[in-house]
Amino acid sequence: MAGPILVGVDGSPPAAAAVAWAADDAARKGTPLRLVHAVYRPPHGARSYPIPGLDDALSRAGGEFLREAEEIARERHPGLDVSARLLEGAPARVLLREAESASELVVGSRGRGGFAGMLLGSVSGHLPGHAAVPVVVVRPGRTAEDATEVVVGVDESEGCEPALGYAFEQARLRRGGLRAVYGWRPPPEVYAGYSVFDPEEAGQLRQTLDVGRIAAWRARYPDVRAEVEVVCDHPVSALVDVAAAAAVLVVGSHGRSRIGAMVLGSVSRGVLHHAHCPVAVVSSRHSSPR
Fold it and tell me: Which backbone phi and psi does 137 adopt, to 5 degrees?
């Protein structure tokens, strides 16, 4: 049986949205849901002055956050196997440690300590690329409850295979379609007139992906309607635009294309900051469930 789906809880609206998304995903997959709140207590030497009762207050608040999160999950899926744990330590470290026995890690885009104008918090920005399991970042108010289409970013590297596996499985569970998107941008010299650009190259690239990499996954998931789309734009812009109303946008944690770099620091991180839907970052260490 697959490990539980792990959710980071801190009482913030993004965390509540993450709990709802994770509960739905756990119900579809038939796996338990594990709620975790990390109580971070700064070392006494790092405090300018002692605050009486602070440690107890942090623990009480954490327990309340977990109770609220459990209510959200059970209200959505009364029969779901839900557990809650109050742990000690820095949130990112705690979640990475707990994710070692999980099948997926879900977090809100920004925690209670983030600034209002920030789209991605320190914890949600750190976890993708470091966890071996898929990390899903959920932004409140951006999840379309009835959306079924899954969008996945592809390139010409083998590094996108785990992301494709996760995306096809999500599409199968949702009984929806899948759109594999290749963000294709010609080199700057084309616009400057210093080289000759063949406009048919994008079409050839789509055909190569369609009958090669995507065809292999279609054979494994014959019930998933999958399409390939090559967009002449920067990969981040292409993925964000196509996935505006998607159930989830899936990207690999790294990869490399002959046209442009596809690494967490560029495409994946850009998508995490700008996408309107939940984003799943899938590590190259992740293996498909089928």
Answer: -110, 125
Note the pLDDT of residue 30. Answer: 96
- Residue 96: domain span: 5-138
Provide the pLDDT for residue 162: 93
Give the helix, strand, coil percentages of the chain, each rounded to 5.
40, 20, 40
Strand segments (E) across 98-257: 104-108, 135-138, 150-153, 178-183, 226-231, 248-252, 254-256
SS3 assignment, position 259 = coil
- DSSP-derived secondary structure letter, 123: H
Q: Give the confidence band of 177 by pLDDT, cuts at 50, 70, 90.
A: very high
Do the domain assignments include residue 144? no
* CA atoms of 244 and 151, how far apart (whole Å): 10
Q: Which two tokens stand for residue 163?
A: 């992301």
> Are 122 and 176 contained in the same domain?
no
Of 209, 158, 162, 165, nearest in space to 183 by CA:
209
Please report the pLDDT score of residue 52 as a whole number: 62
How many CA atoms within 13 Å lie on the side-chain side of 35? 29
Q: How many helices (H) and strands (E) does the chain have?
A: 10, 12
Residue 289 within any structural domain of the chain: no
To which H or E segment does residue 80 belong? none
How many angstroms separate the Cα of 55 from the Cα of each of 40, 43, 88?
9, 11, 11
Domain termination site, one of 138, 169, 191 = 138
Q: Provide the residue count of the chain.
A: 290
